[in-house]
Amino acid sequence: MKRKSKALSSLAELLIPLIALGILILFNLFRDPSFFGIRVAVNNAGNRVLTGNLISIIDSASELAIIAMGMTMVTAACGGQDISVGAVGAISGAVLVKILQAFGAITGPSLIVAFIGACLATILFKLFNGTLVAVFRIQPMIATLILFSCGRSIAYWINGDATPQLASPILSSIGMTIPGIPVPTPIFCVILVGVLLALVFRFTNISLYTQSVGINQGAARLNGINPVAIKLLSFALLGVCVSVASLIGISRLGQLNHKTLLVDIEMDAILAVAIGGNNLGGGKFKLSGSILGAYIIQMLTTTLYAMKVSPVNVKAYKAIVIIVIVVAGSPVVKEKIGALMKRRSGGFHTAAGKGVR
Amino acid sequence: MNGVKNNARAKRREPLTDAQLLMTISIGIFVAMYALAMIFMGGGFLKVQQIFDLLNDNAALIIVASALTIVMIGGGINISVGGVISLTCMACAIFLNAHTGGLSIPLATLLALGIGLAFGAGMGFLVSYLEIQPFIVSLAGMFLARGLTTMLSVNPVKVAHEGFLALVKSKIKISWLGYVAQNGNLIPAKLEIGAVVALLVVLVMALLLRYVRLGRNIYALGGNRQSALMLGINVKRTCFMSYVISGLLSGIAGFVFLTHKPAGNASVAMRSEMDAIAASIIGGTLLTGGVGNVIGTLFGVLILATIQKIIALSPLNASWWQDMASGAMLGFFIILQSVVLSYRSKQKK
Prior knowledge:
Chain A has 16 helices and two strands. Chain A is mostly helical. The relative contact order of chain A is 0.17. Chain A is globular and about 70 Å long. Chain A has a domain at 62-296. Helices cover 73% and strands 2% of the residues of chain A. Chain B has a domain at 60-271. Chain B has a two-stranded antiparallel sheet with strand order 1-4. In chain B, α4 packs antiparallel against α12, α4 (59-73) packs across α14 and α9 packs across α10. Classes of the chains: A mainly alpha, B mainly alpha. Chain A binds chain B through residues 81, 132, 136-139, 141-143, 145-150, 152-154, 156-157, 267, 270-271, 274, 280-281, 310, 312-320, 322-323, 326-327, 330-333, and chain B through 77, 126, 129-133, 135-137, 139-144, 146-148, 150-151, 154, 266, 274, 277-278, 281, 286-288, 319-321, 323-324, 326-328, 330-331, 334-335, 338-339, 342.
């Protein structure tokens, strides 16, 4: 009986995002069946690419999905969220551009060196956040408020120029499509990051350690886990995710705008984590839920655009849908629905329960 | 330094609470900073008008910062305040342009209060009775408020109501605090109505938190929810009320903002929620709940405003320097608080 209810509740964690996604898909099917049409078109560079709403949803949610994965780790380990991801993403972009400009031409090796440099810088900034959280025991939201408020200014200060232009075939193949492959590259980046994280979790104990630090830090410490190291690790992982997302964002536009790069992504990432059924208070986490959450948010936005809602008004509709989703996932409502279901199929359940006992 | 001195005194007399200690530190730093500015920058800082200007320009921020302080003391968070300010500004501006009767200003005030109350009550219900995470609820509130603002009007709406414009221009003049200009005229110190409202709000909230049962319940709720429940406090209702108060105050802040800049605008008070959180923290409120003080928050706002004023008057006048200086100040305060509190908790043991 107990095991069964546990399995049920773990399914229920993903049930609500899945239902939300299902309702969105059904809604679009009834509204306009051609919404999901995928065509092959030829883009400006003369490559054959897939186009369609579905492709554009999955493509443009890439940065959000990648950052949501890192945010899930930080949330699980620290019981709080990092609100400086957008600002640090701008710093990462500024470092990338600075190194690329020092090289002169954008080639494969120079881009790799620049990306590694940007990655290291981002990890450094994230470790600053992590130190405040892990060593000084400051609430994550407060600790990251510092970089949230001055991160974009640091990015501006690093580069001096407001919007450096970076036109290069290598960058456009990262931001859009690689010649010969019809699927947008950012989608592969999400898969790459997801698979890498999954492999790390499969072959190390990081996932278990993170959850135990998030659930009870003291108990984890007594069991020989170093909470400070685990928290710092989660911030470093988020740093890598942020610099990947920042690279995608820059190569999409072919320019760096420190004011608009990854703007407001922190709020959407936290939302994705919450919609995915993760507890924002830390502890257990599901990466798949957060990724699902990211696609739900993007799907919602694209649906609203397709319904001719003006971009500035999208936020209001988005808010209503978010409220509906979180109300459906709230503990009180869940309990009530659970009680209702039990009463309705009461005879069956008690019989099964007796059998187990 | 300050903390050690206070500790020495605390041993002899009744001990300072954490909130009082953190507040004392922030008041001390404000006074020191202002004194240094008076010595090294001189000029405007020597006039009383400078302090009044800080209050005039930041009246709305002071009000929303006290709103956030109250929610944070109760262990919650409300990041929708900036959105509610922009919504109230826009709604009141449109209302005032449509109705020109004598009663239109009081009605606009009621409208502002109503919008704030509706948002506060809605979010409070979701947070306290449905137990949804406050960050997500208020994030949705922020999206809703900003979205509704742009639905009302994408373009800025200037208030053309004559009575209201007269209200905007009317200032309280205090001549004995003024200064004599170069041409020999006495220029009195001017305080806007918004600043008076802000100071009143701070006073009322400080009294409420200290002497009214609801206020003390909010402290108990933020300090330890479980113990508060066992003491017989209606925790859900207390939590609900803290959001209602914060919503109401954001509505007032929106109206005050309109009396400072009489135009509704979709991009008004962008990120003011983060400034308000920063001000609360600098004033000694802990996000974990149970510790905080509205008077400290007032000084938190003044510290942030003074830094910006100093940088604006210095050769480093650029928006990125202002951002970096506020960020550095925030970091300094956060680390200082963490060190002071952990030092005190070690001493208690």
